Amino acid sequence: MSTDGRRKGHLPHPGPYLAEITNHLDSTYMGRLEVSLKKAIPGRVSSKGETFKVKYLSPFYGLTQSRFEGNNSGDFNDVMKSYGFWMIPPDVGTTVMVIFIDGDPNEGYWIGCALSEVNQNYMVPGIAASNHVLMTPEQRKRYGSDYLPVAEFLKKTQKLQNPNPESIARPVHPFADRLLAQGLLLDNIRGVTSSSARRDLPSSVFGISTPGPLDPNGPKNKIGYDGNKQSPVSRLGGTTFVMDDGDAKGQNELVRIRTRTGHQILLHNSSDLIYIANAAGTAWIELTSQGKIDVYAADSVSIHTEADFNFRADRDINLEAGRNFNMSIGGDYNVNAGGDHTFIASSGKLQFTGSLDQTVGTGMKLTVGSDMHIKSAGLFATASGNINLSGKSNNFTASGDTSIRSGGNHLETAGKIQMNGPAASSATPATAAATPSLIPLIQLPNRSASAGWGEGNYFNAGTLASIMQRVPTHEPWDQHENIDPVRFNQSNTDAVAAANGSGGGANQPFPQPNADVPADWSKDLDFINKVKDVSTGLGCNYVDLLCCMQFESNMNPAQRNLAGGSATGLIQFIESTAQNLGTTTAYLAGLTRVQQMDYVEKYFKKTKLSKVPNPTLSDVYMCILAPAYCGQPETTPVYSKPSQSYYSNSGLDANGDGIITKAEAAAKPASKRSYVMQQLVNAGVEQPTS
């Protein structure tokens, strides 16, 4: 029978018939297939004459009528409109059901697909996970889980002999790598799923999974009746739309739309949440049953409104910037506070291009740690009570006249004066201003893709220091509400209540900064003992560590880099280093020496110091200055001209040859040894040397 032109004659009956797809046809009707009837022509199809062309029978499809068309081909209103349900034609080799209208071989339609491959529907419709997975040792180390998305089992090796096909091991689906990158590979709610046609009997899973693109780099084989053409025969996996009524335990009740690459919208009834995420795992948003909206973005969050932006919280509003906090206001800046106004900064500048009026309802105190300069065109001070000026010495200079006028007596007292009278009263000393308290910092779990997934890390980036009780991170975020609804309820996420001890707290605050730090560290025996303990754990000499810290900060835990920048504390932590340790330089500056040594230890454990046998002072100092050179020979160049690193550390170039070697860099902290040893003698922990 020829397929050119119309076929003659009729089939014995309209059908339905089981047929195998031999080719996809792209002609008048999209979705048309070329099929071979399985019983009518047994065996392999070898010619076009043994096949039929059948059209797609959609369960719902429609068109506006051609008789209602206009005459303008460029006008939307003049052309026909189509709508309806459309499915992708199955792959060549799939068995379909076909019918022929009135037995006419030219009016064939394919009306459905037969599940001809027994037990090979595990991936449908949600790319479900399984505990029976074929993995190499490298894959097991990489994924860190035995419950992974899988493909179908290799049928040719099973031959349907296993009475329980669900126990047959299947290969890992490549989608596991996408879930790993998103941080969702261990998450049975937002990541892996049990939504499979084979999960229940009968199945409570309803959904659709598209085949996905043909894999151009995958295996190729001959398809159809053309025996020589090699075509891709594997798929990359596609988009899934799942409506799951849940398993026997009531879990996994959900609606999920997820693309081939991992973009997803999830409506999860069992865990009572809505979750939206991108494929890369760099942005997600979650709406919880208790009324939380958690948002994470690896880049920026931008909002623009051409009218008002109204933001209200009936409890606290917490804002925190890891770097700068900038505001630009075109009009007035108005703040109404019913309580105290507290402002703490390391330094500051305040400028008003116009006038400044300040009104204080009761007393006002101004305390300056060093000199205070006031410069103005004129200076006027009026007090309805007494004016007291007290200083070590007082100097008054006038380029013109000096006038003193008193409505009552004028009294002066000095060692020698040319006027006599009763003794003058002393000025009353000023009362120091009260010091405001820092906002408490809370200890939060942190996850970052840079921390790595394998070796059991699971993107664990340590501890994050924040003024907030709730900071979403990269997945797998440890504090999704569904993990522990009681711990993360409204009262336990009150950062202020947790910090002052009046409430619970999902996370605990860091210890409050202790300002009682002896200026002379030889009197700080707790600190010296702490350094000894830390040095023992690191395998280095504690005196070497003390020398390095003495050079870096004069043993001042609040020491800031005098040349500018963020470097702070005993070993001059920079801001990025502090953040990698789960804190900030602002927080470190408020700690005592003993408290800050925990972060010094944490930092050194991230270096390779412990791998260097018998580390020297220069090895210890390299871990602070340039960690890559720890354990290298003393003559190794560390910085050289014309690099910016050289110019930033040019004071270490002892011979001025434009090269800073490891030995030259360590000479500065080594020069502190005699001072350090004397401090240890003063502390009574070392004996004086002759």
Task: Describe the 3D structure.
The chain is an alpha+beta fold. Among the domains are: 17-113, OB fold (Dihydrolipoamide Acetyltransferase, E2P), CATH 2.40.50; 129-281, no CATH class; 442-500, no CATH class; 521-683, Lysozyme (Orthogonal Bundle). The protein has helices at 137-143, 155-158, 175-182, 495-500, 525-538, 542-553, 575-580, 585-589, 593-605, 617-625, 644-648, 662-670, 673-683; strands spanning 17-25, 32-37, 52-56, 61-63, 82-84, 95-100, 108-113, 129-130, 133-134, 148-149, 170-171, 205-209, 220-222, 230-232, 240-245, 253-258, 264-268, 273-277, 283-288, 293-297, 442-447, 460-466, 637-640, 659-661. The strands form eight sheets. It has a seven-stranded antiparallel beta sheet, with no helix packed on it. Strands 1-2-3-7-6 form a five-stranded mixed beta barrel. The chain has a two-stranded antiparallel ribbon with strand order 4-5. The longest helix is centred in the C-terminal third of the chain and has 14 residues, at 525-538. The model has no long low-confidence stretch (mean pLDDT 86).
